Amino acid sequence: MRLIITTKPKEEDLLVLKEESLTPDVLAKARELVTLIANAKHGPFADDDAATRNTPHFIGVREDFSSAIVACDDIYYIEAMSRRIFAYLAEGVPLQLKGVTIASLEGLLEGHGFRRVSRVMIANVNHLAGFRPLSNYRLLAEMDNGESLVVSRKYVMSLKHYLQEQETMALN
After folding, report:
1. Other C-beta atoms lying within 10 Å of the C-beta of residue 97
2. Residues with Cβ within 8 Å of residue 142, at least 6 apart in sequence
3. pLDDT 10s digits, 84-128
4. Secondary structure of residue 164 in the 3-state scheme
5. Rounded to 5 degrees, what angle do the CA atoms 145, 149, 151 make?
6. Which of 24, 58, 81, 112 is the most buried (most CB within 10 A)?
7. What is the pTM of this model?
């Protein structure tokens, strides 16, 4: 296993994990490392206020011959296509997720702002910029990176209820 940690002033820290196979053992070790790094960065000797600290959660992804760990907040949406699952980041470059299904990811990521928008897609509502109505009771969800997703009519009401709950919680 090869681990590369890069830090630059005024830029995000970059953690790259290179491994031939993404096994549960490798993922567990990587999560431990990320937690250690996050705690060191936001620990008792850090400059920021510990009360406002929010440690991100991560998932493992696989690209061709390497593995990576991506913060859930960095994922804009997840899509199932041709029996494969892809996570899309701000750049729009898909990262393939191995050994998971849309249903299992929906349960895992529900507490991180991800909601089902169609049979084959889960969107991160934290990256939604707005909506436009489409025909047949569908919505066009516009992401803050410029991409647009179609919310199928089956999931429009549940998405609206979720967003209303989030707004109510934010006002309280």
Report:
1. 23
2. 128, 129, 130, 131, 132, 148
3. 899 898 877 788 887 788 998 888 888 889 999 999 999 999 999
4. helix
5. 140
6. 58
7. 0.66
